[in-house]
Every structure is written in structure tokens, then in C-alpha cells.
Design a protein that fits this description.
single chain, 429 residues, mainly alpha, Growth Hormone, Chain: A
Length: 429
Amino acid sequence: MDVTETQTASPPTKRPVRQLLAASVGNAVEWYDWYAYTFLATYIAAQVFPKSADNSLVPLLSTFAVFAVGFFMRPVGGLLMGAVADRHGRRAALTVTILLMGGSSLLVGLTPTYAAVGVLAPVILVLARLLQGLSVGGEFAASTTFLVESAGPGRRGLFSSFQYVSTTVGQLVASGIATLLVDTLSDGQMNGWGWRVPFILGAVLSLVGFWIRQGAQETRSAEQQQAPRPGLFEALRRHPRESLLIGGITAGGTIAYYTWTSYLPTYAELNAGLEKSDALLAGTISLAFFALLQPLGGLLSDRFGRRPLLLFFGLGFALLTVPLLHALRDSFAVLLLVSCAGMVLLTGFTSISAAVNAEIFPPRVRAAGIGFPYSLTVALFGGTAPYVGTLFKEVGHAGLFPWYVAVLCLLSSLVYLRLPETAHTPLRR
């Protein structure tokens, strides 16, 4: 990345609050749909996959495998929807992604059981998750560029933080609804129809997000709109070093993020014997705490730079992942403390990742340039985290999973050490 390249600043958008709302509400709906699957994985496993007489973990492993499969469509979504954002505008891409997510969420909610249609049930579920992966990959590419390009001078970190504020709100709503359903419905009701409710609700909410995004202001500059359209693989072809840099920045962040925000309740159930409702409640509380931390992290990065926060995250997780996860036991309070401690460290990455990514690529290929390498890295390390953690448990080596997370965070920390500081450099427009 050549941060000395000539850069021109264009005025920020005239309605920054409206821009934040358009990006954040739609993004929250997208991620609500995506994460509802994770929080209800055990119920989906029981209804959509065949039971194994030899191993009760087989349906759950199958469910997490489908979770990982959805992630492998995210690079495709990042590339295709990123290209739409670079060619036709950020708002056009954001409109497509939220409609796609609404349709795929409805498909999950209407998936028949294995008892009713046999192998067709997991086939339909896989198809729905592939479409969701396509949507989420495109959403990150488009919303990242949209948010950062909407920011005023010295506010890119703050605006960047709303990427994960809205993502976490989506998770929080999904976790809260899952907790409410588990606490109020019987096991028979949850397995019969209760697990479907969040997905059908998500399809309705997607229409709300679509309506809000219609009023957003396009952030792609007039110069870029008039320039020749970039090729589909132009970012990879012309900026290979930047693409690899995105991967190195993201690897540790994504494994830590999905471990702490998605898989930790299931990990606590499998390895510490916590009740399902207690694990979900602890996850919900820690997610609310996490959302409140994000703007603070963004503001700190605007003041002191991106690299100090990234190193705080990376080295913190490299040193503390193993003791934190080994500290888990059959205690709600301990799980909550471990969750919140991880959220503090994680904020060093999540609050500024959108800004860091956007500051790496030039505007012509910014969305596609971010979308493909970021989503590919998330698919390889984030999407597989629940599966890898459950697999370690099945083969009798659950204690290896925390080391796996710690090593990846250490490797990303080496990238952060050599990362040029871009917080106070004008964004290329």
C-alpha cells in the first residue's frame, strides 16, 4: 500500500446521521438473519439432519458444517456485490444485498424437517445458507465503503465503529429472541415451530431495511461515477499486496470474533456443562456491552491511530485466549466475566476494521478490493470456528481450540506491527 500516493479529499455527505442510519439499520437486519442460525443451531440440527445412534454430536456437527458452507459463499458475494458497488454505486449494492438476505431467511424458516422430506431438508437448508453467504459477503463490502466514505474529517474511525455496532445489534436481537423463545416455549414447541419464528421475522425486517436504504445518499464521487467501470478482478490483479494485507489483518480478528460472539455459548455448553438458557443469556448481556464499546474504540483510533488498537487486540488475545477459555466452568458469572473480558480486547479490532480496510484500497476498486480477500479470510477462519471447536471436542482434544485461536491472533499481530498508520491521512476519493 502506498500511503504517499496523491490523495484528494471530497466533501463528506451532507446528512451523516441519515447515512449512519441507512447503513446501520440495514446491516443490523442482515446480521440478525445470519446469526439467528447460530443461536438456534441445536434445534435446527434435531429437525433437519438425521440422528446418529452412535454419536449425539453428529447432527450438531452437520449444522455447523452448513454454517461454514455459507461462509464460503461470502467471498463470491464480496467480489460480485463489491463490483456492483464499484460500478453502479454503494447504495445499489446495499439494496440488492438486503433483499437477498430477506428471501434466504424466509427459506430457512420454511425448511421442512428431515422426518417429512428426507434428504431434501438439508439440501434446502444448504441452498438458503449459500444465498445468505452471498448476501453477507456483499453487505460487508458495500457497507464498509459506504460508512467510511460518509465520514467527515477525523471521524472515519468513529463511523467505522458503527459497522460492528449494527452487526452486534443484529446479533443481540437474534440472541435475545432465541433466549426468550427457549425460556417461554417447551422443548416440543421449540423443536416443532419455535425455531422457525426468528427467520420468518427476519424476512419481514429485511423489507424495513430496504425501505430505509432508499433514502441514502450515494458516496461514490462524481469523478468515480464518470470513470470507466473497473473489471471484476481488477483489484486482485492490480493490488495483490493490498489483498494479502487484508487477509493478514483479518485472520486473527475473525477467529476471535466468531469464537467470542457466536460460538462461546455452545462452547460453554459442550465443555463446561452450562445450561443452554444460561449460556444464551450470558451471550446476550456481553453482546450489549460489546456494542457500547465500539464508538469508544473508533474515537480512540481517530485520536491515537489504528495500529495501537490493533496491537492491543492481537497481543491481548494471543496471551489471554487460553487462560480465559480454560477458566470456564459450570457458572453463569464466570462465563459472563470471560465473555466481557474478550469483548474489551476484541474492540481493538472490530471498532476500526472497516476504516483500516477502506484506507488500504483506492476508490475505484475499494468495495471489491475489500470484499473478496476479507470474506475469503473470514470463510477460512471465522466460518469454520464453531465446526473446528466442536470437532476438537468430539475427538477428545477440546483444549487445543484455545491454542488455535491464540496462534492466529499472534500471526495477525505480526502484520499489525508493520502496518502503515493511516488514521490521519486523507481518504482517497
